[in-house]
Sequence to fold (210 residues):
Amino acid sequence: KDYNQNVKNSMVESPEQLINFFSQIDNYLNGRMGESAQQQRPVTSASTPYVASKSSIAVTAALPNKLNPPLDNDAFQKLLKSNTSLGSTIQAYIQKKPASIPSLKLYAEGGDPFAQLFLGLAYADDWTGIQNPAESCRWIKEAAIAGVSSGRFFIAQKAYLKSPCFSEAPTLEQAKVWAELAALSTDQSIKKDAQELMLSILKAQIAGNK
Fold:
């Protein structure tokens, strides 16, 4: 109701565009960033040696020392309303504009958890020109530690699949705890995906004990 069409340099141009923008963001935060764990196949097996991605910074699936409360879509929307510059940067990234990457890095290095999430996604996207699995896991894990539920689900899924983005092989127990943290989300699709992943992990643990 406070929309002013005469304000320049705003993140969006109308309330309708704002709604559309949040809809696009929701697609990222509600676990639709890629295939589900059930659709993917683990990249390693018991008979295949684990080979980590090369990175100057070691990235593991180790659990956080401090448990932060979940950061979900409501927190993200509040952030966008309070920081239009970051909102514009994320919007530009969603629109696949390479010029958004330097700004994402600045915000991520400054400690913003949602910028860290999207920078991690940028390192996973081929169109950005900076593809690096280890850096992707590094930044998304930073977001996950801060509490971003979609980041927690991402790390849980990567740990379950034993992704080479980690500098050492993750364990099923690590994957399970990250999935449990993701399941604390107030966003129902993330909660559902995390619970399904937890079931897959439990089945794998039971099978491994036989």
In short: The radius of gyration is 18 Å.
